[in-house]
């Protein structure tokens, strides 16, 4: 059986709003083809990106309760804020954090949103264990990947928030690699009180983790879990 094809692009460092619009363009293109019953050999796209400091909140999030600082303070710390069309509550994106945006036509995979979320989690769990022998885990009733201590406390390393319409996905996961975790102090991450956030750098007790190595390994885990083949994207963000 042939592997499903995804167009892959590493956007490098890009502003959130510009990347969001690019995602939406790719997302709308897939939906339009589905509506018009145009067959496509590609199952979708997969983007990597690293954003400047930005806080984003899902369509049902509670800004007044979970964003703990003013707009003036955001300016002082060089951060922006966006209300988005994804699910989930508030989170932070910034330098040293790897963002993965799968824009998938789920007709090529399966039409089950819960299974999709569990497989996104599995990509990160697989990546952590295969490359670092760190056991990432799920948390009952929540979406994302955590580390659990014997005393019952947990530390979140990967947030996940998606949008799905007509069985096409956008948005995705945010993996803390070398992230400045102090930026999480200004929010209630994902709307969960008393939730500790961590990074790969912190867990491995290293000065810095090779971002390029992490990209390569997460990409490989995604290919294995979703059984896909990547080819270079032909469209460009700046076109």
Descriptive labels:
single chain, 239 residues, alpha/beta, eight-stranded mixed beta sheet, three-stranded mixed beta sheet, globular
Give a quick summary of the entry.
It contains six helices and eleven strands. It is of the alpha/beta class and 239 residues long.
Report what the structure shows.
The structure is a single chain. The protein is α/β, with parallel strands linked by helices and about 240 residues long. The chain contains six helices and eleven strands. The chain has helices spanning about 15-35, 65, 70-75, 115-130, 200-205, 210-225, and strands at about 5-15, 40-50, 55, 80-85, 90-95, 95-105, 145-150, 155-165, 170-175, 195, 230. The longest helix has 20 residues, at about 15-35. The chain is globular. The model has no long low-confidence stretch (mean pLDDT about 90).
Topology of helices and strands:
Blueprint: E1 4-13, H1 16-35, E2 42-50, E3 54-57, H2 63-66, H3 71-76, E4 80-83, E5 90-93, E6 97-104, H4 113-132, E7 145-148, E8 154-165, E9 168-176, E10 196-197, H5 200-204, H6 211-226, E11 228-232
Parallel strand pairs: 1-2, 1-11, 3-4, 8-10
Antiparallel strand pairs: 2-6, 3-5, 6-9, 7-8, 8-9
Helix pairs in contact: 4-6
Q: What does the main sheet amount to?
A: 8 strands, mixed
Helix content range: 25-40%
Taking pLDDT < 50 over at least 5 consecutive residues as the criterion, the unreliable ranges are none
Mean model confidence by pLDDT: 91
Rg over CA atoms, rounded to whole Å, is 17 Å
**DSSP helix count?**
6
Query: Which class of secondary structure composition applies to the elements?
Result: alpha/beta
Sketch the topology as an H/E string, one letter per element: EHEEHHEEEHEEEEHHE
The gross shape turns out to be globular
Beta percentage is 25-35%
